[in-house]
Amino acid sequence: MRIDVVTIFPEYLEPLNVSLVGKARARGQLDVRVHDLREWTHDRHHTVDDTPYGGGPGMVMKPEPWGEALDAVLASGAAAPDGTAAPDGVADGAGAEGGAADAGPVLVVPTPSGRPFTQRLAVELAAKPWLVFTPARYEGIDRRVIDEYGDRLDVREVSVGDYVLAGGEAPVLVMVEAVARLLPGVLGNAESHRDDSFAPGAMDGLLEGPVYTKPPEWRGRGIPEVLLSGHHGRIARWRRDQALARTSANRPDLIEGSDPAALDKHDRAA
Ligand code: SAM
Predict the structure, then answer these.
(1) Closest approach atom of ligand 1 to CA 109
(2) In total, how many domains does the chain have?
(3) What letter does residue 148 receive in the DSSP assignment?
């Protein structure tokens, strides 16, 4: 997968060099390219913002640098006549949803006014060959930029939570890590994300219950007996009950939104 990030704070993305994402990059599973938006400014001060039309506090990011930056990023991944210059799957439109979005990346625009970033969306983005992120600062990016690229790309305006951060770089770190760990071969144990909180399938979108490791006793606290039983059926049942209890306590909305057909008769009794 290829990931491009355009930002006025390239150094903010340095954590993408460490841990899981850093290793995936070193192994060639992830091609991450961070670009400084100010490279596409033409004045002495490298200006990227201006006052908002209609008045009000704060500044708005100017459309011209964003337009030039995104055009350059898109051109760098455009298919050569033989298709070799495009990231995997882009030349033939794989991963795009058809129409105008066929030939390009998914453009992910972090904004508190976007749709919530969820595990479901992470799974969807992990299946795409190329993502471009546009973390903003100030009051955000001039709307015409999102409209302009929305005409030809699959554009997703995405929020990482119901709060307002100073910039979109931290949301990009969050989203890239959530997506990268789903890529084949990135996690040591391919099974592990299938049992994670929110995972569709085995977890039915529930929260994961508590986990334990050695020693069997720590500060007088033991391990739930069932986990030492070696009885796989009972352990699975216990884990499921813990997941249901934790989800009802912390995120009842997830239970209300779940498919009743996914609950078995033991779940109903739990
Ligand atoms: N005026 C904007 C509003 O109220 O929606 C907030 C702008 S915020 C100070 C600056 C930038 O930080 C946003 O354009 C976005 O890139 C990023 N950002 C802040 N909070 C975010 C969130 N919850 N999710 C995703 N991006 C966020």
Answers:
(1) 16
(2) 2
(3) H
